[in-house]
Every structure is written in C-alpha cells, then in structure tokens.
Specification:
Tyrosyl-Transfer RNA Synthetase; Double Stranded RNA Binding Domain; 3 domains; three-stranded antiparallel sheet; 8 strands; about 10% strand; elongated; binds tryptophan
Length: about 450
C-alpha cells in the first residue's frame, strides 16, 4: 500500500433520479471505474439520494433508480472492496455536517448558486414571485453537496462544467469553518476531464434525460438494436458517400471503437455504406462491449438484497471515518461533553487525568505526527509523518473509534511495536474509547 502522502482522494456522487444511459457510461462510469483501480487513488462513490429528494417526489422512482445506479456501477467493475461505495442517506453525519456548514455560510452565497438563480430568473421572466416553487432543499443544495465532499476530505471531485461552482462553494464553506474552528477540512478541487466524450443522443443533441433522446445502458439487446435503428441520419441513399462530420451515429461509434475501427467506418462512409448497415455495425460494436456487463447487471438486479448488503458494508466503511470525524467537529464547535472542562476551569477529574492522551505536532521535516502517551507520559504509540494535519487527525479518529481494527489498518504509518507494546496500546485505546463513551 502506498503511503498516504501520495494518495489522492477522489469523490463522486450520482443523484438517484434516473436510469443510467450510454452517455453516462461513456462520459463517466467507464472512465471512473478504470480510474478507481489506480494504486495512487482512493475513491469514494456514493448514491446521492438526499439530493434526489430535491428533484423528485416519487418514492418508487428513487428506490428504483438507487438500485439501478448501484447495479450499474458494480456491473461495470467498481470493486466495493477497493473503493468506498455507499449511499448518502446511510451516513447520518452528512446532514449533520450540512447544518454546521449552513451556520458558517452567508445566505448571499447560496443566492448566487446557478441552479437557484436560474429558478428565480425563470420566475421573474414569467411574472411570478421570485421564489415561487423554490424549495429550501433546492436552495440548500450546495451546502449538502459541500458536506458530501468535506466529510471525507476529498482532494478532487470529478465533475462536469456545470458543477464547478458547487465545488468552489464547498471550498469556501470549508475555508470559513477552518477559519473559525481550526484546520479540519481539506479544501477540494474540481477535476474536469476534457477528454471525456460527450455522447450525442438519438436526435444528435447531447444525450440527456431532459431531451428524452437517451439509450438506456442496459436495455435488452433487441431494444438496443431498435433504438440504434432510430438514430437520426440524413436521407442519403446506399452508395452515396456520407459525412462523418455531424453524424451522431459516427460519434457514438467512435466512443466505443478503437482507432482502426473508427478509420474503417470513416472509409465505409466515404464509400457510401447504407445507413441500415452502419446502424448494424454500431449495434454490434456496442453490444460487444456491453453484453458481458449487461449479464452481470441483470444478475445484480435480480438480487437487490445483495446490493443492499454491499451498500450497508460500504456505509460502515464510510462511517468508520465520518463518525470520529463528526465527533471531532462537534467538539470543535462546542457541542461537548459537559464534564469535559478545559484545563484550569475547575472540576478536576481524577479519571481523566489518569487517561492516556494523543498529542499532535509538526516536525522540522514539515510533516505531521502524533503520539499516544499514558498518563505518566510513557510513549505508547508513535506515528510516522503524515502529509497533512487532517490525515494525522483521521488516523487518530480511527484509533479512537475502533482501536484494534485501526491499529491493524495503520501499521505501516506507525513506528513498529512488539506484541507487549501492541497489547498495551490497545488497552490504552480501549480505555480511552470507554471513557469518551461515558
Ligand atoms: N450534484 C451532483 C449531480 O447532480 C451530484 C452530487 C451530489 C455530487 N453530491 C456530490 C457530485 C458531491 C460530486 C460530489 O450530478
């Protein structure tokens, strides 16, 4: 495992209101799954079902979409052992963090969010009240999204251009919080992949649910063939040369084919291939790539309980981070155990004084360290250097939450321990965990 200093955390959410289509596959899923397999990347993928409630009031559709999107990612090869794959609504720390962020964010900042402004502009143009039909949920969308991102201290958030403003808002909110309460959040950056293809839909405009021109990714084979047959072409007859420029059919083919295959189709266009034959080529090329994924998708869709289990396991993995992190943030803002008084303000507690404690510090090498000492100052654990105080803080959080599991997971970031020292450290950590649970 590479050291945390070289790992970049990527995080992406997918709103659960629709059925994945070929455009989602080409523009996002395929690339993200490949990317998540890189050793220097740690990925967080989640189903943004709280966000779905903003746009959709059909419960059955939200449930169905959540299932379809989860099955799609898994069928396309996302490995839940390797990445953290979870459902937003399984992480109660996210709405809690949304509230914290709301309390450090000016209302004027949210007034300027594109989606909200567009709604207000539409209303004004139609002569309605500016906020007609605007829910507080829509207004708060950027704060919920910021909580998604800041909760896991993501470095990079791959998004389309339309989402860049949201990432900037997340940065601003994280920054305001850090400024008031100390360095808790990593400030995220948008990662716009220019190379990612924008797929045209059946009518040649961008493939999008809102245009109703999509090809569902895992539509049955016969339906796929039928839909491809309905792609708009011009009226040139067989034998007449065809233009590749502006041909939706050609562009979709290109998104699936390699360079040699693309060249062959270009040549066929020049030589006057019949549209029917070109459509058959496209259908076969897509089906070649999709068929094995479709088989996996159908198997997954037939066993929703399995997907439910995968998501709950993912949520546990995510909450191993979000729970201790939220505990730290609660403490930072003053939502505290009342018996825990700052030193020197009375109520001395013998039990507390005897407890082991963590110390965090920075060394001359510029890296961030922590150690665990018992009440007498004996060293129990010594960390190696972390790239950021957040990384060190997260390791501490994990150790406080699940001492034994975290010790195992963190061995490479700690100075070596013999068995006796390990037992002493676990005992001290459990002692601490118990004390904080009181
Ligand atoms: N707003 C994103 C979309 O509509 C979904 C989303 C929610 C998201 N939370 C996020 C994306 C956090 C990236 C990071 O597509």
């Amino acid at each position: 495992m590479p050291s945390p200093a070289t790992v970049t955390r990527f995080l992406t959410g997918i709103t659960t209101t629709g059925t994945p289509h070929l455009g989602n596959y080409v523009g996002s899923v395929r690339h993200s799954v490949r990317f998540s397999q890189r050793p220097d990347v740690q990925s967080y993928y989640f189903l943004a079902d709280y966000h779905a409630l903003i746009k959709c009031d059909e419960p059955a559709r939200i449930q169905r979409s959540t299932l379809e999107i989860a099955a799609t990612w898994l069928a396309c090869g996302l490995d839940p052992e390797r990445v953290t794959f979870y459902r937003q609504s399984d992480i109660p720390e996210i709405p809690e963090l949304t509230w914290f962020l709301s309390c450090v964010t000016g209302k004027g900042v949210l007034n300027r969010a594109h989606a909200y402004k567009a709604a207000v502009d539409r209303n004004s143009a139609a002569g309605h009240e500016p906020d007609a039909d605007v829910t507080v949920g829509l207004f708060m969308y950027p704060a919920l999204m910021a909580a998604d991102i800041l909760m896991f201290n993501a470095h990079k958030v791959p998004v389309g251009r339309d989402q860049v403003q949201h990432i900037e808002m997340a940065r601003d909110m994280g920054n305001s919080f850090n400024h008031l309460y100390g360095e808790h959040f990593t400030l995220p950056e948008a990662e716009i992949d220019e190379a990612v293809a924008l797929l045209p839909g059946l009518d040649g405009r961008k493939m999008s649910k809102s245009y109703g021109n999509t090809i569902p990714l895992f539509t049955p084979r016969a339906q796929l063939q039928k839909l491809i047959g309905s792609i708009t072409t011009d009226s040139r007859a067989p034998g007449e040369p065809k233009d590749t420029e502006g041909s939706a059919l050609f562009q979709i083919y290109q998104a699936f084919a390699d360079a040699a295959e693309t060249e062959a189709l270009r040549k066929a266009y020049a030589e006057g291939i019949a549209w029917g034959d070109a459509k058959q080529l496209l259908f076969e090329r897509i089906d070649r790539e999709i068929a094995p994924l479709r088989a996996r998708y159908e198997a997954l869709m037939a066993d929703p309980a399995q997907i439910e289990r995968i998501l709950l396991a993912g949520a546990e993995k995510a909450r191993a981070l979000s729970r201790p992190f939220m505990a730290r943030l609660r403490h930072a803002v003053g939502l505290r155990n009342l018996a825990d008084q700052p030193a020197g303000t009375g109520t001395p507690k013998a039990a507390k004084a005897a407890r082991p404690s963590f110390k965090q510090y920075r060394e001359k090498d510029g890296r961030f360290y922590f150690k665990l000492q018992d009440a007498k100052g004996t060293l129990l654990l010594q960390s190696r250097g972390f790239a950021s105080p957040q990384d060190a803080g997260r390791a501490i959080g994990q150790l406080q939450q699940q001492p034994a599991a975290a010790l195992e997971a963190l061995v490479s970031q700690l100075e070596p321990l013999d068995n006796a020292a390990l037992r002493a450290a676990i005992e001290a950590l459990e002692n601490l965990a118990q004390a904080s649970g009181e």
